[in-house]
Amino acid sequence: MFRHFLPLSTRVHSSSSALATRIPRLPRRAHRVSPTVFRSHHSPSSQPKLCPTCSSPLPTALPVCTKCSYIAPIPESMTLHEMLGVSYEPNPFIVDVAALKNQFRAVQAVVHPDRWVAKPQDQQAVAAAMSSRVNEALHRLSSPLRRAEYILAQEGLAGEETDKLDDMELLMEVMEAREGLANAQSADEVGEIRAENDARIQETIQEIEESVGAKNWEKLRIAAVRLKYLQGIESAAAAWPDVVHDN
């Protein structure tokens, strides 16, 4: 798919046969489809919802009113996208991260526990839980990998931390990149490895976006596992010259 990005492959040719004998093909993990698949995703309405207590327009998509201090728990069916006022459809992977952060600040200005410190205990508890969920929404949606894993979970395919890379050729390339980082003698060498790896990351992110748009969840799952490994290389490269550890 993107093997041409790897001039390091000259070392793979001399060792690929040995690696192949030592590394057995990893079995594909079975995925259990949740009996409940969240399909009813709604785009944020341009018309603000009204407070059920005072009928004032709510400042965010959340059930919180700054006029009369009405607050209620977040509905279980509300997506992380909806919490931050962005669209889930037609492609929930496509988000404007800068706009997402702006929305996050606007929502936290309404639900942050400090704003509710003088209110009754039950309202404080709801605000604290809501603020935590909003933090989680930004954390998950601002990262391509976490966003892809969230979408898989929404579609009934919960990602597992134990997912392994099934592509043996790519696995050898990942191992070679880590070996290159471990043996690198200069920042320039590390920079070359990072540039090659970044090209693979960007290509994988593009594949994820297309897979989500086509609702090809199995292809998305495979690409998300690949991205996890590639981001592991980037993290190791960013930490150089510290000792490089495997995922």
Helix content: 40-55%
The overall pLDDT, averaged over residues, is: 82
Distance between the termini: 23 Å
Kindly estimate the percentage of residues that lie in beta strands according to DSSP. under 5%
How many individual β-strands? Answer: 0
Given the helix and strand composition, which structural class is it? mainly alpha
The radius of gyration computed from the alpha-carbon positions, rounded to a whole number of angstroms, is 22 Å
- Which spans of ≥5 residues are poorly predicted at pLDDT below 50? 1-40
What's the helix count? 8
Order of helices and strands: HHHHHHHH
**Major sheet: size, sense and barrel closure?**
none
Principal-axes geometry comes out as elongated
Describe this structure in words.
Helix content is 53%, strand content 0%. The chain has helices spanning 9-22, 80-83, 97-111, 121-141, 144-154, 168-183, 187-213, 217-239. By secondary structure, the chain is an all-alpha fold. The protein is elongated and about 65 Å long. The longest helix is centred in the C-terminal third of the chain and has 27 residues, at 187-213. The model is unreliable at 1-40 (pLDDT under 50).
Index terms:
single chain; 247 residues; mainly alpha; elongated; 8 helices
